[in-house]
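In this supplementary section we document a worked example of the pipeline. Step one takes a protein sequence of length 87 as its only input; no multiple sequence alignment statistics are reported here. Step two produces a three-dimensional model, which step three serialises into structure tokens for compact storage. The input and output of this example are shown verbatim.
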Amino acid sequence: MYSFLLYAASVSPSPVPAADAADSAVPGFASFVATAAVVIITIFLIRDMTRRIRRVRYRGEAQALQQELVEKGKEIQPDEPGDTPAR
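The serialised model returned by step three reads:
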């Protein structure tokens, strides 16, 4: 078992030619286009998400204001038979 460990530790990897290493490190035009597409899609998704969240928040505020006005209206003019609507 020790001889296997000594052998594994002493074996060196085969050298890689410098020309192949330089060519494989260049991302290329396709990688640029793919990265740009991901960035553009992400920007549009964030804008859409922000717009939807804002819309939900405004809807909630409008409903709360409407409910508050309804409650104030009930305190000022209770609904009873014979009452005329406010103008």
